[in-house]
Amino acid sequence: VLRPSGELLLASRLLAEAAASQRGVLLAHEFAALCAVHGMRLEEHLRFVEPPPYLSERVARIAAYERWRDERLESGHDPNEDAASSLDWWYAEACLACLHHCPLEHYSAHAASQRHREAYRGLGGLRLRPGVLRPIPAGPSKHALSSGAQGTTGVSEAATFWEVSGLPHRRVLVLGEADFSFSLKLAQRQSQDSTGGSSLVATSFLGEHDVEEPEVSISNGEAVWHHRRTLNAFGGNLLKNLSALTSMGVQVFHSVDATNLQGTLLNHDLHDDFDVIVFPFPQASPCSDARNATLVRDFLRNMHRVLRRPNNGEPGSTVTSAAAASELASASPLTSSAALPVVQLMLLESQYAAWDVECLAAEVGLVLVAWMPLPSDLYSVRFLAGRAWDPKGAALFVFKLVQWPSG
Q: 209-238 in b/e burial notation, b at 16+ Cβ within 10 A?
């Protein structure tokens, strides 16, 4: 906004209003209202400009936090501020009291800050809405096993991975592929273990490889994080893997958004719904910010649109039949009958708690039933920029859908 030099006082007032707002910015209608309060008109002295991308992203993110707070919390229920520092207000890397990105490891210090206390006081205190879950975020070795999930420790072999995952014997959707090496390994394993060949659909978020798009630049030996429209060639590995998958009859689709499966996958000619969805290493940002947890959250709220519905899968209904309940209670829940749909994530173990994965899964009816360290020799794990990396500290997390989500 440009003003004549004599209007600096008003500009300072507007900036103060913006700083006091939880967004940190003023939207156009809010700005117009403030001008009216101060006796000013929106005329030729004012010029609105398109906000920079980072500011638009921030406004959108805080608007999402506001929606999450409305979904999860009720205000006006703790006027004495007894629960101001409760972990109940932390969700998916955000403090919903302050509408502020907050990594889990910083939450204790944040919750003790004056900023947090003032925001909490301004809401009249908070409480969880009835039925809203808030499991204590913890790593799988500390919490997942204690809640009944099966885990394995130590060095894991690829054969153990296939046994725990159960993927060779199920119809599988793979999301977020880079060079499609994981899908190729799975297709080969399915062909070995099944007389019917592979039962697999492999997808990538990025578009089909375009030779006109430059490959990633390298700085100090490290791949530079950048935005691509299409897949990297990965030194020829991409086309080689895609050719092998096609020869095995595997359906391959590009530009499939895990947060919008209905709009980007179901418009293709799929042969059937899926028993299992696998999402290896979901990542929307190279650093610790809310985009990664938001990606997982939005994916989990879309996954049921392509999963096979047991017991007709009515929204909100419990999908555990007697056989399925027995499956959950069995010593080997993944080797028994395929009564329950399955979602599997590959993550660093630290990301499980940091991204609030257990809470995000629980609120859509998913229960963690198994996890295991990821074998380093399973497949070629790559950044989208092209560089391979060793998934040390990574694990497979296996969830079963016990209640069909609404919506």
A: beeeeeebeeeeeebeeeebebbbbbeebb
| Both tokens assigned to 126 | 């908070």
Q: Which residues pair with 376 in a beta bridge?
A: none
Beta bridge partners of 398: 344, 370
- The overall longest dimension of the chain from CA atoms, in Å, is 82
Q: What is the mean pLDDT of residues 134-152?
A: 65
Q: What is the pLDDT of residues 33-76, one digit of tens each?
A: 666 665 555 544 445 556 666 667 777 888 899 999 999 999 99
- Per-residue exposure over 29-67, b if at least 16 CB sit within 10 Å of its own CB, e if not: eebeebbeeeebeeeeeeeeeeeeeeeeebeebbebbee
One-letter amino acid at 370 equals A
pTM beyond cutoff 0.85: no
Q: Kind of pairing, strands 342-348 and 394-401?
A: antiparallel
Alpha helices by DSSP H, listed for 166-232, are 181-193
